[in-house]
Design brief:
The complex is a heterotrimer of chains A (103), B (168) and C (391). Chain A is mostly helical and 103 residues long. Chain A has three helices and no strands. Chain A has a single domain, classed as Orthogonal Bundle (Helix Hairpins), CATH 1.10.287.3510. With 391 residues, chain C is mainly α. Chain C has one domain. Chain C has 13 helices and two strands, in the order ααααααααββααααα. In chain C, helix 3 packs parallel to helix 11 and helix 5 packs parallel to helix 10. Chain C starts with a helix and ends in a 15-residue tail after the last helix. Classes of the chains: A mainly alpha (103), B mainly alpha (168), C mainly alpha (391). Chains in contact: A-B, B-C. At the A-B interface, helix 1, helix 2 and helix 3 of A face helix 1, helix 2, helix 3, helix 4 and helix 5 of B.
Chain lengths: 103, 168, 391
């Protein structure tokens, strides 16, 4: 098992854990935590491929990862703003209770 | 893989597992911070210094604090009334396990076929190189990300604002 | 001889390590440097605590502590013994693990910041290429420990103090980064040693420190304001205001954990003073070329202690800012000025050498400051009071 496949397996494991968290937890914020874990796993993938790829001096993987970090931070901000507004409206963040469009 | 890598990988995966399994939401957010730190250390191990420090600054310094503030503002730290998991956690677990199986098979199957001469020399990346790349080759993505961040900033403020009394 | 005095710690380290086999020498040198940092800065912390209590006392027209030892010089020892032997009370409903980890995290994070500061010539622990970024990344992590301390105490006053402290720290982080960005831009590198080397040159015996340029002076003032707010020091110390919030986020801490918080706060202050010294005050370089015989590490420590004296002076002089005044100040005054400072620094770089750039840059900064201070920070004029009675 090469070092590259080791990193890719860790990233795949983190992605699966994030996916499980996003699909099974009831609190909306924990779903967002799962999404952040998935994005981080993808970043790890990018950096691992950058490091062990053929042209690391082109910096493509690192740039992609940096932009991904920035975009994920923006998405976390908007997502959490939405969760706060939903809580103000429905007085709960329980996703099983907010499963109707009628509010 | 060396001993250090095993420890870092174990730390990250443990943080991730704790983040999705714990009952107390604030503990989940703190475990997520541990996972972020473990990932930053993995980036440093992969000679991506700038990405590692940016990960610490942005994720631990901003996103983690955002998550805990949201938990506090939505009373998430009180004990939930029902169970912490949805009514059918099994489906989610099965889907996640299938995804991991597919990804794991793809990784192991394809890296076994890589040509053995794949380079693993340490790339020397200075911050000057990154700045140069950002200003020449990646200037368009940089400007678009700046626009996106401005839109996200204004959007988040508008979404989370208290509605004025008269506009209902 | 002067060289020897300047490099005495480096030479001492290499001599001590030479007794070990070659494979262990490099890690042992790093370990020795880490131990030196962990010993030196808490010793300076003890001196600073005494200085603060005596200094504040004199500013408030009273003696400071003067019972323990001559002129109260052994007061830090007494304080240390008291903190170590006090009972460690943890509230019953507090979250024990998080309550324990919060001071640990704070102390670890503030000590890690010293790894990239050039304490003397050839005396940087780790010469990172992205050193300044490392310092800011590590400093941003200390906010989490404040939140953990406030939340785990299950105490409304602690939680309020923690939320205020975190809001203040994230608001002032952006001006802190922006004012350092001007220095990084002009030097062209995030490496702390390169920044000090760029300031280590002399013209007619006067140094090239960045504080002596218009944008550097404005940047230094903005950095100082942001650093005072980042470390929760007066006049920005509402989160730990003794008369408002009991003790803010460390209400429920006693004994050694409180001492750790105290240590973490002061060591963090010294760390950020060290960064300000590196960025604006020339790091380990001497003020005049004739004074170059004094060792470089002595200049660095001297400049840090001078910054601590200024912190103490400001604490004794200015009244505390209210939370909304504080946030207003950050977002509406310090941040726009630090953005403008960035532009002025760029203009400085692209105008040629000469008198014109001094005049233009100083004029722009002064006019902007006056306009923002008069227009942007105007207080609301209160009209006649209107009463609303319960029906």
């Amino acid at each position: 098992m090469t070092p590259l496949s080791g990193y890719l397996l860790v990233a795949a494991l983190l992605f699966a854990i994030g996916l499980a968290g996003a699909l099974t937890r009831r609190n909306a914020i924990l779903v967002l935590i799962g999404i952040e874990l998935m994005l981080n796993a993808a970043n790890l993938n990018l950096i691992a491929f950058w490091r062990y790829g053929p042209h690391p001096e082109a910096l493509t993987g690192m740039m992609f990862a940096i932009f991904s970090i920035a975009v994920a931070a923006a998405e976390a901000a908007v997502g959490l703003g939405l969760v706060i507004q939903i809580h103000r409206h429905a007085q709960t963040t329980d996703l099983d209770a907010i499963n109707r469009m009628k509010g | 893989m060396s001993f250090v890598l095993y420890i870092l990988a174990a730390l990250t995966v443990a943080g991730g597992l704790a983040a999705v399994l714990l009952k107390n939401t604030v503990h989940c957010a703190l475990a997520l911070t541990v996972a972020f730190a473990g990932l930053a250390l993995l980036f440093l191990e992969l000679d991506a210094q700038f990405a590692g420090f940016a990960q610490i600054l942005i994720y631990i310094g901003a996103v983690a604090i955002l998550v805990v503030f949201a938990i506090l503002l939505t009373r998430g730290s009180e004990t939930p009334k029902g169970s912490a998991y949805s009514h059918s956690p099994l489906v989610g677990l099965v889907i996640a396990a299938c995804v991991f199986a597919v990804l794991g098979w793809a990784v192991l199957h394809s890296t076994a076929q890589l040509p053995p001469g794949t380079t693993s020399a340490t790339p020397t990346v200075t911050v000057a190189d990154i700045g140069n790349a950002l200003m020449t080759r990646y200037v368009l993505p940089l400007e678009i990300v700046a626009l996106l961040l401005t839109a996200a900033l204004i959007g988040a403020v508008i979404v989370a604002m208290h509605e004025k009394e008269g506009s209902r | 001889m002067i060289e020897k005095a300047d490099q005495i710690f480096v030479l001492l380290g290499h001599w001590l390590v030479s007794f070990l086999p070659a494979a262990l020498q490099k890690p042992a040198l790093v370990l020795l440097a880490v131990v030196a940092i962990i010993v030196t800065f808490p010793a300076l912390f003890a001196i600073t605590v005494l200085l603060e209590r005596k200094g504040l006392g004199r500013m408030q027209n009273r003696y400071g502590p003067n019972r323990v030892g001559p002129y109260g010089l052994f007061q830090p020892v007494a304080d240390g013994i008291k903190s170590l032997t006090k009972e460690d009370i943890v509230p019953l409903s507090a979250d024990a693990v998080v309550h324990f980890l919060a001071p640990v995290l704070l102390v670890v994070v503030v000590f890690m910041g010293y790894a990239v500061l050039p304490i003397g010539r050839n005396m940087t622990l780790v010469n990172l290429d992205a050193g300044i970024l490392f310092f800011f990344a590590i400093g941003a992590s200390s906010e989490l420990s404040v939140f953990m301390a406030g939340w785990s105490s299950r105490n409304k006053y602690s939680l309020l103090g923690a939320m205020r402290a975190v809001a203040q720290m994230i608001s002032y982080e952006v001006p802190l980064l922006m004012s350092s960005l001007a220095v990084v831009m002009i030097t062209g590198s995030l490496n702390a040693n390169r920044i000090v080397d760029a300031q280590n040159q002399y013209t007619y015996g006067l140094p090239h420190w960045y504080i002596f340029t218009p944008w550097g002076f404005a940047g230094f003032l903005l950095f100082a304001v942001a650093a005072t707010a980042e470390t929760n020091r007066s006049p920005f110390d509402l989160p730990e205001g003794e008369s408002e919030l009991v003790a803010g986020y460390f209400t429920e801490y006693s004994g050694f954990k409180f001492a750790l918080f105290f240590l973490g706060e002061y060591v963090g202050m010294m760390g950020i003073s060290g960064l300000g010294t590196t960025l604006f005050l020339g790091g380990y370089s001497a003020p005049l070329q004739v004074l170059g015989f004094v060792p470089s590490w002595a200049w660095f420590i001297g400049k840090i202690m001078l910054s601590m004296c200024v912190f103490i002076w400001v604490r004794g002089t200015l009244p505390r800012l209210r939370q909304d005044q504080l946030m207003n100040f950050a977002w509406k005054f310090v941040l726009p000025l630090s953005l403008l400072n960035l532009f002025v620094a760029a203009a400085w770089r692209f105008m040629g050498q000469g008198f014109l750039r001094w005049v233009v840059c100083s004029a722009v900064l002064l006019i902007a400051y006056v306009v923002m201070a008069r227009v942007g920070m105007k207080r609301e004029h209160f009209g006649p009071r209107s009463y609303r009675y319960a029906e």
